[in-house]
Amino acid sequence: MIQIFEYLKARYVSEKAQGIVEYALILAFVVVLAIALTNAGGLADKVKGVFTSVGSQLDKTGAQ
């Protein structure tokens, strides 16, 4: 009976630890993405540039 209890305890603890690690990795990804978007001269400016370029291309084709 003690062996079964120890097995279940070890399994529950390992799954809980795995969940904590997964949440930590997701949080780290979100933080890195937020830093990249708010960094001056970073990804935010490039994304804005792409949308501006696409908008101007659409305006040119719509005017013809």
Features of the shown structure:
mainly alpha; rod-shaped
Q: Care to give the gist of this entry?
A:
The chain has two helices and no strands.
Number of helices: 2
What general outline do the C-alpha atoms trace?
A: rod-shaped
What is the count of β-strands? 0
Helix content bin:
over 70%
Arithmetic mean pLDDT: 79
* H/E element sequence: HH
Explain this structure to me?
With about 60 residues, this protein is mostly helical. Helices cover about 90% and strands about 0% of the residues. The chain has helices at about 1-40, 45-64. The longest helix is centred in the N-terminal third of the chain and has 37 residues, at about 1-40. About 0% of the residues are buried.
Write the layout of secondary structure elements.
Layout (H helix, E strand, L loop, with lengths): L1 H37 L4 H21 L1
